[in-house]
């Protein structure tokens, strides 16, 4: 899994465009543009639309995000983890629904996904050489700005990940949706959703100098979720009516009304 040695050119181009465009200024603009919560949609419609979306940055699977969601949740359930953790497995990628209001220019459409998918990274400081395709780091305009290309950049030691900005994508978008709509999930769930693509943190330990005690407490949850997010992926469909009913009941419990996205 996550073998980028023989990756298709489309995946490489997705990372190249994202790395060269996702600056501190760009991320701030995306927050202003997309966190308006001006569309109302129910959770089932989100899943139906997500079923149309195949992640161009992911070399591990050719199935839709809907099937990956079920596989992830089923892996978590099989190991006896609590319901909220299963739900995280089910919904962790639905922030990709941003494509229904996105555009090619922002990389937030089905055709150009670099503003939705892929490993995230912290903007406002140097880009880690542990990032996937770190050779593209030099293409990021912020790396020519002495205020933004140092180890700490605009941040201070121990600032905490809740006080930094990550490259724009489905993680942050879904986190903000859940917060805005006051979905009843534990803080661990929201943290996982917000940072599950920040591999430079939970896999490579590139941001230890920015972590606070809260981040250190939450790191175990990120690592645990990563196990299910990555290693349940298979190019086969495991969905059946009984499984779908189980997760539909769960969605009905947590998402009682339409979501503003």
Query: What composes the largest sheet?
Result: 2 strands, antiparallel
* SSE succession: HHEHHHEEHHHHHE
Number of domains: 1
Label the structural class: mainly alpha
Helix content: 40-55%
Sheet-strand content, in percent, reads: under 5%
Q: Give the strand order of the largest sheet, numbering strands 1, 2, ... along the chain.
A: 1-4
Task: Show unreliable segments.
Answer: none
- Envelope shape: globular
Intertermini distance? 32 Å
- Count of discrete alpha- or pi-helical segments spanning 4 or more residues: 10
Mean pLDDT: 93
The total strand number stands at 4
Rg over C-alpha atoms, rounded to the nearest angstrom: 18 Å
Q: How would you describe this structure to a colleague?
A:
The protein is mainly alpha-helical and 261 residues long. Helix content is 43%, strand content 3%. It is globular, with a radius of gyration of 18 Å. It starts with 8 loop residues before the first helix and ends with a strand. The mean pLDDT is 93.
